[in-house]
Design brief:
Number of strands: 4
Strand order of the largest sheet: 1-2
Largest sheet: 2 strands, antiparallel
């Protein structure tokens, strides 16, 4: 069987496990708003550029957990 990595998150008193491809670590980032095309996807808080120049979408974990509870 394949190994699955799960990150346990808590937001607004609710806990959830998010399955991830990999864990890169923890870092501080500057969050930028999404443009009009992606702004309707509420589960994304915004976007950032990582230290190596890679663009990355940032999840709104609280929204993901609330959506999963519905």
């Amino acid at each position: 069987p394949a190994t699955v990595q799960v990150v346990v998150c808590e937001a607004e008193g609710l806990k959830a496990g998010l399955i991830v491809d990999s864990i890169l670590g923890q870092t501080e980032v500057v969050l930028k708003p999404l443009d009009e095309i992606l702004s309707g996807i509420e589960e994304y808080a915004g976007a950032t550029v990582l230290g190596d120049g890679t663009p990355s979408l940032v999840l709104d974990v609280a929204k993901v957990i609330r959506t999963a509870q519905e």
